[in-house]
Specification:
About 45% of the residues lie in helices and about 15% in strands. The protein is α/β, with parallel strands linked by helices. The mean pLDDT is about 95.
Length: about 190
């Protein structure tokens, strides 16, 4: 089993990445290979609604001048996809949504490429908006036909400055339980 954890934050080593690393540590401790991909050091343009992915059916996007295809390829290779985002005015970051919009369209027009992969979202908020962002990412997982693992609460935590989420014990515990459930589910499917 192989997992990709995608950090949609434009901030390197921030709160979202801290939570994704907690998830990664838990998955790796249970024998699942992981790769963390940061969108902060990548450029992913938004979908232009050109329709090329619908016409060509070649698992590719017409936009070739950014980092999309490298990340998309890793998503296709992974058995588990975990998405992390801070809350930006009640929604996921534009960087992450650009990736998901393009990946989602290509997937749907090529036979639902993410169907039955495992995954789920992790969200960080300063104070509010986490439920909207969590739901926004959940919509992407479910419309992609993916299997989402639960936890003891929604996979959210609170923090503003880098490292603040380390003080949110319940948030960290929730992410760890989520990762444990992903690993358990992966074992059931593989076994």
């Amino acid at each position: 089993m192989k997992a990709i954890l995608i950090c949609g934050s434009p901030r390197m080593n921030g709160n979202t990445e801290i939570l994704l690393r907690k998830c990664q540590e838990t998955l790796e401790a249970r024998g699942i290979g992981c790769e963390l991909v940061r969108l902060a050091d990548k450029t992913i343009q938004p979908c232009t609604a050109c329709g090329t992915c619908a016409r060509n059916k070649d698992k590719a996007c017409a936009i070739k001048t950014d980092d999309f295809h490298g990340v998309f390829g890793k998503m296709l290779e992974a058995d588990i996809i975990v998405l992390g985002s801070p809350v930006y005015f009640g929604s996921a970051t534009p960087q992450l949504m650009s990736l998901l919009d393009r990946a989602g369209y290509i997937s749907r027009f090529n036979g639902n490429l993410f169907h039955r992969k495992l995954g789920g979202p992790i969200v960080v908020a300063r104070r509010a908006g986490q439920n909207f962002t969590y739901a926004q990412l959940m919509y992407w997982f479910t419309i992609a036909g993916m299997i989402v693992a639960g936890s003891t609460y929604w996979n959210i935590a609170f923090g503003t400055k880098k490292g603040d989420v380390e003080q949110d014990a319940e948030g960290i515990e929730t992410v760890v339980h989520f990762a444990e459930n992903l690993a358990w589910l992966a074992g059931k499917i593989a076994g």
